[in-house]
Amino acid sequence: MIVNLVVLLACQLAGEVAARGLGLPIPGPVIGMALLFAAFILQPRLAQRIAATTSALLAHLSLLFVPAGVGVVGHLDTLGRDGVALMAALLLSTVAAILAGVYVFLAVARLTGASE
């Protein structure tokens, strides 16, 4: 399990180094996730090996939200001041993401000739 965690963290570190070193506008963890995905494609046994570790991490995912909750409590004054704008941005971005997903699904269905 330790080796699997090292692989996950190494991919994230590589993504952070690439994002900051090259000045990319993409977050480092996203680049790291793409690197991990590429590693899974090149080495399918790696995906099978890491599956148990990632399942354990996902089972305890709620623990990762504790720092976010502490951050919200720490910035209650900002939420009180800009709460309406933050909620509007959250609502609009959620609707935009859902609509983008719908349009991508429709485009892929049209390209693949899937029947309705």
From TrEMBL:
<dbReference type="InterPro" id="IPR005538">
    <property type="entry name" value="LrgA/CidA"/>
</dbReference>
<feature type="transmembrane region" description="Helical">
    <location>
        <begin position="54"/>
        <end position="73"/>
    </location>
</feature>
<keyword id="KW-1133">Transmembrane helix</keyword>
<dbReference type="Pfam" id="PF03788">
    <property type="entry name" value="LrgA"/>
</dbReference>
<keyword id="KW-0472">Membrane</keyword>
<protein>
    <submittedName>
        <fullName>Antiholin-like protein LrgA</fullName>
    </submittedName>
</protein>
<keyword id="KW-1003">Cell membrane</keyword>
<feature type="transmembrane region" description="Helical">
    <location>
        <begin position="29"/>
        <end position="47"/>
    </location>
</feature>
<dbReference type="GO" id="GO:0005886">
    <property type="term" value="C:plasma membrane"/>
</dbReference>
<keyword id="KW-0812">Transmembrane</keyword>
<feature type="transmembrane region" description="Helical">
    <location>
        <begin position="85"/>
        <end position="109"/>
    </location>
</feature>
